[in-house]
Amino acid sequence: MNYICKIASLEDVINKQNEKINNHSNDNKWVRWKEEFIERFNDKTILIYCGFLDGQIITEAIAVISEKDKYIQNKEGLIDKNSAYVMSFNTNKQYEGQGYFSKLYKFMEQDLKKRGFKRLTLGVEPCEVRNMLIYFNLGYVNYI
């Protein structure tokens, strides 16, 4: 199997969002989210990182890289010229626990470092214990 990590193109974003809309045909919020992601992509307030396995997106993560992003609330201390906010981590169920997301995360972290970011922040709900453990394993040490 051939797994590569890269920054998504607009075509990649549209295709993945269409897939999500098809998988959630009874939930209109996915259509709204697609429009938001395209707007943010075009405004260059986010970078969307994807892991492709044999040409199919199986992992994804988003980095909010601009304070001008209008969809993140309470962003003070989360996003600035030195800090990017990472979010929307996703791995297709059948590929969880196989190291694909870790590879994507490392790719994203290295790319953001090259872009001059010195700190990454993220949000997680207290009930998401599994996700907190993953984030601590990735090197996050503080939480509020």
Describe this structure in words.
- The structure is a single chain.
- It is globular, with a radius of gyration of 15 Å.
- The chain has helices at residues 10-23, 29-43, 100-114, 129-138, and strands at residues 3-7, 46-53, 56-64, 83-91, 119-122.
- Helices cover 38% and strands 24% of the residues.
- The longest helix is centred in the N-terminal third of the chain and has 15 residues, at 29-43.
- The protein has a 5-stranded mixed beta sheet, with helices on both faces.
- It has 4 helices and 5 strands; from the N terminus they run E-H-H-E-E-E-H-E-H.
- With 144 residues, it is an alpha+beta fold.
Radius of gyration: 15 Å
Strand portion: 15-25%
Q: Which regions have little confidence, pLDDT < 50, spanning 5+ residues?
A: none
User: Can you count the helices?
Assistant: 4
Largest sheet: 5 strands, mixed
Strands of the biggest beta sheet: in what spatial order? 1-2-3-4-5
Sequence of secondary-structure elements: EHHEEEHEH
Taking the alpha carbons of the first and last residues, their distance comes to 39 Å
Kindly report the average pLDDT value: 88
Fraction of helical residues: 25-40%
Quaternary state of the chains = single chain
Shape verdict: globular
* Beta strand count: 5
Give the helix/strand class: alpha+beta
